[in-house]
Amino acid sequence: MEAERAWSYAMQLKQEANTEPRKRFHLLARLRKAAKHGEQLEKLCESPRVDAKTKLEAQAYTAYLNGMVQFELQEWKSAMEAFNKCKTIYEKLASAFTEEQAVLYHQRVEEISPNIRYCAYNIGDQNAINDLMQMRLSAGGGGGMMAEKLEALITQTRAKQAAVMSEVEWRGRTVPVKIDKARIFLLGLADNEAAIIQADNEETKERLYESLLAECRDTIQAVREELRTDVKQRERAAEGADSGKVSNLQYLHSYLTYIKLWTVVRRNESMAHALQAKLKEPQTDENKRGPRPQDLIRLYDIILQVQRSHILNAFLYILGFEVVVLSLAELSSLQGLEEDHTFQKEVALKTLVYKAYRCFYIAQSYVLVKKWSEALVLYERVLKYTREVQSKAKSLNNSLKDLPDVQELIAEVNAEKYSLQAAAILDTEDVAEVPQQQQIKDTTPLSDRLDNFRIDPSLLSKQPNLVQFPPDFQPIPCKPLFFDLALNHVAFPPLDDKVEQKGKGGITGYFRGFFGFGS
């Protein structure tokens, strides 16, 4: 516990040392303390009461902690020896136990391997850099401390290679590359694309695409800043505006922008392929929401709406798919490519391909709600787009190699058309067989229509309409209210003779009444 506590504190200090370099000294102290506790643990495990497995695990644990200390001190040879010792012990333990127990040991071996290759590269093994790059691109490399050092190593290696790179060729024009960040990015572009192709799962592909896009954005920002500071370039651009030829730096900016836009398109296309595969899989859990054609429609919307604001995206989405053609104008409007007719035709061809796929999934969404005529019209529109693509692709060589397979889409549309026609006929026959009175939608609960037979699929659902709840109000007699209306019309007899006349008789009458006389 003491060793783990010291090691975890060192990892926390490692993160904080990025902004506070002085914490690196505290980091080394905590790592040394963790290694010291590991050595004490190894000595305790030398007791005869400890089994062989625990002794070996303690030795591997101590070797790993010592290797981390030497690794941080950049003592590459000592660190490599400690890591190799740890790796050997874990491999022996994995071979000695069952497959379930060996999984943990193999996992530890995989975590240590990047550290060993990194040490080997720093010792002088140049072949180790290829393994490290492959591990970083395909699986992210080691975690924490190792990941940061691996990123720095790859950047340093590309910087050395970039020193000999002076120019790049794109669409028949060669431009010099003088910005170091652009050189490093262009050198690693091929490796990144190869790693994306070789990725095992969609999650890894998504992570690699995001990493590539982030690096591309940083490179474009560096070129843009160089453009702002280059006053002479602005003057040359103003002078050469009539000729239509842009400067080399502006052309390089257009090339990097094209890479970014096309990478976004390929990333969204990869997500669309993953959704297509899930869409074809049977749904086992009815309560769980699965993918729908609407999800794919939105993805192809994004492909056609590259680099647009959110407000404009929403506006174009409301207007319909015929308007989103304008969104791919980002590619065709790149500076230096306005007069490149071949490039403009390629962009138009790509737009048609993605419009065809988007239209196909709109038709699929109409099929789900049994709107057969609308779906059939949209399928015909898909075939129209594909015919245009095939006719235009004949004049462009290798123009469809990076695009989805149009021929496969045509075959799928033809199959869907036949299925749609059959489903429409069957749906019409089913409606004709059901009596008209049974087709009327009635919300009367079952308890109120027990004498009338009617096919009601809702009775088998989770919310059957059995009784009226809450029940309707029933009229009941209320408590009567009595009003004496005749009282206002009754004439009472005069009572003047009964009322005593006050104020008559004076004092004599008072005494007479007091003593009882005259009563």
From TrEMBL:
This is Signal recognition particle subunit SRP68. One of its GO terms (biological process) is SRP-dependent cotranslational protein targeting to membrane. The keyword Cytoplasm applies. It is found in: Cytoplasm; Endoplasmic reticulum; Nucleus, Nucleolus. Keywords: Cytoplasm, Endoplasmic reticulum, Nucleus, Ribonucleoprotein, RNA-binding, Signal recognition particle. GO terms for cellular component: cytosol; endoplasmic reticulum; nucleolus; signal recognition particle, endoplasmic reticulum targeting. Its main location: cytoplasm. It comes from Labeo rohita. It comes from the Eukaryota. Pfam families: SRP68 (PF16969). GO terms for molecular function: 7S RNA binding; endoplasmic reticulum signal peptide binding; signal recognition particle binding. Belongs to the SRP68 family. The keyword Endoplasmic reticulum applies. InterPro entries: SRP68, SRP68_N_sf.
